[in-house]
User: What shape does this take?
Amino acid sequence: MTRRALSLLALASLPLASLGAAGCRSAEASELSAAVGLGAAPTAEEVELGPCTSANPMTKPGVCQLHGKVKIVTAFPKYKVKIVNAFPDIKVQKVTAFPDGPGKWQFVDSFPDFTIQIVDAFPDFTVQYVNAFPGCN
Assistant: This one.
């Protein structure tokens, strides 16, 4: 056997979930999947990026940059949010004017930039309210 075949066999003994960062596909995982017939060959983008470039994968892209006027709704939100006290995806500072930076949210009743629904299970991302230093870590 060739060296490449041996390395693929070694990778095949590992569970596929352990091959990439949480929720990300590395080039090796894509190559293994293609080799054993589990999926398509890696795209040029996957090969170029290699392991996932984001250390904090999110359900919705751009969560760290969220700012603006927010309305809390009970149905059909743009984002479902869970309020936590530790380890949030984004730290939010409630402001009364000029929500112009990441994590600065002004709560309004009309003309919101985006809507949220506060949930206890299956959120798109988690939020912690802070008085200073809003945004992501």
